[in-house]
# Entry
Amino acid sequence: MKKKIFFLIPTLSVGGGERVVSELSAAFAKIHEVKIVLLKKEISYPHAGQIISLDVDLAKNIFLKIYNYAKALRRFKKIVKKEKPDYVISLGHIANMINILSGARAIVRADNFFSKSLYGFGGNIYKMLVKALFPRAHMVVAVSRQSALDLEKNFGVDPKKIKVIYNPLDVQSIEVLAQEPLEKEYEEIFKNPVIINMGRLSRQKGQERLIEAFSQVKSKVTDAKLVILGTGELEESLKNVSEKLGLKDNVHFLGWQKNPFKFLARSKVFALSSLWEGLPYVLLEAMACGLPIISFDCKSGPREILAPDTDAGFEAKNIEYTKYGVLVKKEDTGLLSQAISETLLNGDTLQKFKEKSKERALDFDMSHIIKQWEFLEQ
# Structure
């Protein structure tokens, strides 16, 4: 049965959640009426459905934030009252709170491992809000089994309200985009064995540890290069780390790329150095490009992706060669370096995990994931 489905998200620009909305909106629009409500009209990703902007400033000042989020809530309440959507699916901390408080039939997406990701003054406030407000949501969609367990055990969310739905991929589209040629300015870099990382340049993503690990890789794989895709508040700091380690000409910051897949497809391995995740979308995208994965075994997601037959609560104590990739003891720079070097220097391992990545990516294809959203038709 056709429904009116709204998405609520701060912007549709850079980020994993934004890409999820891009993919889901296209799939849902084949069946339902879809509208995407943005706090601010910033759009980088393709989408289906009508865009509605609440037109509020995403200020950094705490007092302006409170004022603007209150304004967004008032405006969204009016839209909900007028449009009467059957469901509102929200992504992001503030969007989730606005969704629940709006009176809509709220489906909130918990896109991270909250016990790790929420810290400091703002994080502690949000923890309290999660405990107080998530029980009022119609449903909480967790992106991994471990993040669902975290919500149940540490935030008091009723497990009957939690549904685990992994992030979706459009594997066919990724394969097409991966074949696009590189710009000439990048061709020389990719003539070498490239270790690639993609994500916001932030504390969470742990790129400083990756750069430190790469400095050790260079002693064994002398022609290796490190490519980092993304932007963020730590960009200058990370560039300084590269310079101090004598890696200025070997670590390449290529910024945000509209088509990251052509870079992924021409790399040798993808290295995830995150300190925490929900379900790292970049791993799935890299695997769809046939890229071998080496990842810190952080909470949560990497183990569920790379070693789905193991205990999702277990953490690697060393280097663990799993069914679909390599898991490394979290935050251990030396072991990360060792795992990258060993993989790069072993052609059989590279080929094996290249094939396994492509195989595993298909499990997250939209054709499979969309079935888990069929409850919206009820």
Q: What stands out?
A: Residues 171-363 form a domain with the Rossmann fold fold (CATH 3.40.50.2000). The two ends are 7 Å apart (CA to CA). The chain is about 40% helix and 15% strand.
